[in-house]
Amino acid sequence: MSSNSIAVNAAVVTVSDTRTEDTDSSGRYLAEQLENAGHRLLHKIIIKDDTYKLRALIASLIADDQVQAILVTGGTGFTARDNTVKAVTPLLDMHIDGFGEIFRYLSHAEIGSSTVQSRAFAGMSNGAIVFCMPGSTGACRTAWEGLIEQQLDSRHKPCHFVDKLKNVHQPGS
Protein backbone atom coordinates (compact mmCIF):
# COMPACT_ATOMS: atom_id res chain seq x y z
CA MET A 1 0.00 0.00 0.00
CA SER A 2 1.44 3.36 -0.94
CA SER A 3 2.15 6.04 1.64
CA ASN A 4 -0.90 8.07 0.63
CA SER A 5 -3.41 5.27 1.08
CA ILE A 6 -5.21 4.37 4.27
CA ALA A 7 -4.99 0.93 5.88
CA VAL A 8 -8.31 -0.43 7.12
CA ASN A 9 -8.72 -2.58 10.26
CA ALA A 10 -10.67 -5.68 9.25
CA ALA A 11 -12.20 -8.90 10.49
CA VAL A 12 -12.91 -12.00 8.42
CA VAL A 13 -15.77 -14.24 9.55
CA THR A 14 -16.40 -17.65 8.02
CA VAL A 15 -19.92 -18.95 8.62
CA SER A 16 -19.88 -22.73 8.46
CA ASP A 17 -20.93 -25.83 10.34
CA THR A 18 -18.08 -27.86 8.84
CA ARG A 19 -15.03 -25.68 8.11
CA THR A 20 -11.93 -25.69 10.27
CA GLU A 21 -8.80 -23.53 10.08
CA ASP A 22 -7.28 -26.21 7.84
CA THR A 23 -10.24 -26.33 5.43
CA ASP A 24 -11.29 -22.67 5.46
CA SER A 25 -9.89 -21.71 2.05
CA SER A 26 -12.41 -18.85 1.63
CA GLY A 27 -11.59 -17.15 4.93
CA ARG A 28 -7.88 -17.71 4.34
CA TYR A 29 -8.17 -16.17 0.85
CA LEU A 30 -9.93 -13.05 2.17
CA ALA A 31 -7.45 -12.66 5.04
CA GLU A 32 -4.51 -12.95 2.64
CA GLN A 33 -6.01 -10.45 0.20
CA LEU A 34 -6.64 -7.92 2.96
CA GLU A 35 -3.08 -8.18 4.19
CA ASN A 36 -1.63 -8.14 0.65
CA ALA A 37 -3.54 -4.89 0.05
CA GLY A 38 -1.90 -3.37 3.15
CA HIS A 39 -4.87 -3.62 5.51
CA ARG A 40 -4.69 -4.92 9.08
CA LEU A 41 -6.40 -8.22 9.88
CA LEU A 42 -7.57 -7.90 13.49
CA HIS A 43 -9.67 -11.07 13.65
CA LYS A 44 -10.22 -14.25 11.63
CA ILE A 45 -13.10 -16.25 13.06
CA ILE A 46 -14.97 -19.38 12.08
CA ILE A 47 -18.48 -19.58 13.53
CA LYS A 48 -21.29 -22.10 13.22
CA ASP A 49 -24.24 -21.08 11.06
CA ASP A 50 -26.47 -20.16 14.00
CA THR A 51 -28.56 -17.01 13.67
CA TYR A 52 -28.14 -15.73 17.22
CA LYS A 53 -24.48 -16.61 17.73
CA LEU A 54 -23.64 -15.04 14.38
CA ARG A 55 -25.70 -11.94 15.13
CA ALA A 56 -23.97 -11.55 18.52
CA LEU A 57 -20.53 -11.91 16.94
CA ILE A 58 -21.19 -9.42 14.14
CA ALA A 59 -22.77 -6.99 16.60
CA SER A 60 -19.66 -7.18 18.80
CA LEU A 61 -17.41 -6.54 15.78
CA ILE A 62 -19.57 -3.60 14.69
CA ALA A 63 -19.39 -2.19 18.23
CA ASP A 64 -15.59 -2.60 18.39
CA ASP A 65 -14.05 0.85 17.89
CA GLN A 66 -11.09 -0.69 16.05
CA VAL A 67 -12.98 -2.79 13.46
CA GLN A 68 -13.74 -0.81 10.32
CA ALA A 69 -14.54 -3.60 7.84
CA ILE A 70 -16.08 -7.05 8.30
CA LEU A 71 -15.90 -9.61 5.51
CA VAL A 72 -18.34 -12.47 6.04
CA THR A 73 -18.15 -15.59 3.90
CA GLY A 74 -20.83 -18.27 3.96
CA GLY A 75 -24.46 -18.61 4.94
CA THR A 76 -25.88 -16.56 2.05
CA GLY A 77 -27.53 -19.38 0.08
CA PHE A 78 -31.01 -20.86 0.19
CA THR A 79 -30.69 -23.83 2.51
CA ALA A 80 -32.27 -24.03 5.95
CA ARG A 81 -28.81 -23.58 7.50
CA ASP A 82 -28.00 -20.38 5.57
CA ASN A 83 -28.62 -17.76 8.26
CA THR A 84 -26.26 -14.90 7.45
CA VAL A 85 -28.94 -12.70 5.85
CA LYS A 86 -31.32 -13.23 8.76
CA ALA A 87 -28.58 -12.70 11.35
CA VAL A 88 -26.81 -9.65 9.91
CA THR A 89 -29.49 -7.61 8.11
CA PRO A 90 -31.14 -6.30 11.33
CA LEU A 91 -27.76 -4.93 12.44
CA LEU A 92 -27.25 -2.69 9.42
CA ASP A 93 -27.93 1.04 9.60
CA MET A 94 -27.74 1.37 5.82
CA HIS A 95 -27.85 -1.19 3.02
CA ILE A 96 -25.47 -1.06 0.05
CA ASP A 97 -27.83 -2.48 -2.57
CA GLY A 98 -25.31 -2.17 -5.38
CA PHE A 99 -22.96 -4.70 -3.77
CA GLY A 100 -25.33 -7.64 -4.17
CA GLU A 101 -26.49 -6.47 -7.57
CA ILE A 102 -22.98 -6.11 -9.00
CA PHE A 103 -21.77 -9.29 -7.28
CA ARG A 104 -24.51 -11.29 -9.01
CA TYR A 105 -23.76 -9.56 -12.33
CA LEU A 106 -20.07 -10.49 -12.08
CA SER A 107 -20.91 -13.98 -10.85
CA HIS A 108 -23.27 -14.61 -13.78
CA ALA A 109 -20.29 -14.58 -16.14
CA GLU A 110 -18.73 -17.37 -14.05
CA ILE A 111 -21.63 -19.59 -12.97
CA GLY A 112 -24.55 -18.51 -15.15
CA SER A 113 -28.06 -18.48 -13.79
CA SER A 114 -26.98 -20.24 -10.57
CA THR A 115 -26.04 -16.76 -9.35
CA VAL A 116 -29.72 -16.07 -8.59
CA GLN A 117 -29.30 -18.32 -5.55
CA SER A 118 -26.75 -15.93 -4.04
CA ARG A 119 -28.03 -13.54 -1.42
CA ALA A 120 -24.75 -11.61 -1.21
CA PHE A 121 -25.27 -8.22 0.44
CA ALA A 122 -23.46 -5.40 2.21
CA GLY A 123 -24.19 -2.49 4.47
CA MET A 124 -22.85 0.04 6.94
CA SER A 125 -23.34 0.05 10.69
CA ASN A 126 -21.72 2.20 13.36
CA GLY A 127 -19.06 3.34 10.92
CA ALA A 128 -18.12 -0.20 9.88
CA ILE A 129 -18.73 -1.71 6.46
CA VAL A 130 -20.01 -5.28 6.34
CA PHE A 131 -19.63 -7.37 3.17
CA CYS A 132 -21.46 -10.72 3.12
CA MET A 133 -20.70 -13.16 0.32
CA PRO A 134 -21.10 -16.85 -0.48
CA GLY A 135 -18.81 -19.41 1.10
CA SER A 136 -16.97 -20.67 -1.97
CA THR A 137 -13.45 -19.42 -2.57
CA GLY A 138 -14.44 -18.56 -6.15
CA ALA A 139 -17.26 -16.34 -4.91
CA CYS A 140 -14.91 -14.65 -2.45
CA ARG A 141 -12.44 -14.04 -5.28
CA THR A 142 -15.22 -12.53 -7.42
CA ALA A 143 -16.33 -10.26 -4.57
CA TRP A 144 -12.77 -9.23 -3.65
CA GLU A 145 -11.45 -8.61 -7.15
CA GLY A 146 -14.64 -7.12 -8.56
CA LEU A 147 -15.77 -4.93 -5.66
CA ILE A 148 -14.23 -5.08 -2.20
CA GLU A 149 -10.59 -4.46 -3.11
CA GLN A 150 -11.40 -1.16 -4.82
CA GLN A 151 -13.97 -0.03 -2.26
CA LEU A 152 -11.42 -0.50 0.56
CA ASP A 153 -8.75 1.41 -1.39
CA SER A 154 -8.68 5.07 -0.36
CA ARG A 155 -7.08 5.95 -3.71
CA HIS A 156 -9.94 4.53 -5.80
CA LYS A 157 -11.78 7.16 -7.84
CA PRO A 158 -14.38 8.50 -8.11
CA CYS A 159 -15.35 7.09 -4.71
CA HIS A 160 -14.71 4.41 -2.09
CA PHE A 161 -15.97 3.58 1.40
CA VAL A 162 -12.78 4.25 3.38
CA ASP A 163 -13.65 7.89 4.06
CA LYS A 164 -16.99 6.78 5.54
CA LEU A 165 -15.47 4.41 8.11
CA LYS A 166 -15.08 5.16 11.81
CA ASN A 167 -11.72 6.33 13.12
CA VAL A 168 -10.21 6.94 9.70
CA HIS A 169 -7.02 8.94 9.92
CA GLN A 170 -5.72 10.54 6.76
CA PRO A 171 -2.04 9.88 6.01
CA GLY A 172 0.12 12.49 7.69
CA SER A 173 -2.60 13.53 10.16
UniProtKB/TrEMBL annotation:
InterPro entries: MoaB, MoaB/Mog-like_dom_sf, MoaB/Mog_dom, MoaB_proteobac. Keywords: Molybdenum cofactor biosynthesis. GO terms for cellular component: cytosol. Pathway: Cofactor biosynthesis; molybdopterin biosynthesis. Residues 11-155 form the MoaB/Mog domain. One of its GO terms (biological process) is Mo-molybdopterin cofactor biosynthetic process. It comes from the Bacteria. May be involved in the biosynthesis of molybdopterin. Belongs to the MoaB/Mog family. This is Molybdenum cofactor biosynthesis protein B. It comes from Pseudohongiella acticola. The lineage of its organism: Bacteria, Pseudomonadati, Pseudomonadota, Gammaproteobacteria, Pseudomonadales.
